[in-house]
Amino acid sequence: NGRGMWIFGAQIKIINKQQKVIFNAQADGPYMLINLLPGDYQIVASYQGAEQKRALAVKADISQKLNIFWK
């Protein structure tokens, strides 16, 4: 379908505006729910040597969704 595939075992890091890693875990499934304080973050996802980065601006009292697809 061109959207990628479900994977398990991706390494997920979240880096805050001060360049400090505030979250670092391996995803046990295709979904990961993380509560973050409002602010600007960089999400770094790694899987089998490939890495993807996304910027994320978290706002107060608003749920947000970030999708990362692997091909």
Compile the SSE list and pairings.
Elements: E1 11-16, E2 21-26, E3 39-47, E4 50-58
What brief labels describe this structure?
single chain, four-stranded antiparallel β-sheet, 42% strand, mainly beta, globular, 71 residues
Account of the protein in words:
With 71 residues, this protein is mostly beta strands. The chain contains no helices and 4 strands. A 4-stranded antiparallel beta sheet has the order 2-1-3-4, with no helix packed on it. The termini are close together. The relative contact order is 0.28.
Task: Write a concise synopsis of the structure shown.
The chain has 71 residues and is mainly β. The chain contains no helices and four strands.
**Basic shape:** globular
User: Over all CA atoms, what is the radius of gyration?
Assistant: 12 Å
Query: Can you give the helix content as a percent range?
Result: under 10%
Unreliable spans are none
* Largest sheet features: 4 strands, antiparallel
The number of strands is 4
Q: N- to C-terminal separation?
A: 11 Å
The proportion of strand residues reads 35-45%
How would you state the average pLDDT, rounded? Answer: 89
Q: Pairing-aware structural class of the strands and helices?
A: mainly beta
Order of helices and strands: EEEE
- Please work out how many helical segments DSSP would assign: 0
**Biggest sheet: strands side by side, in what order?**
2-1-3-4
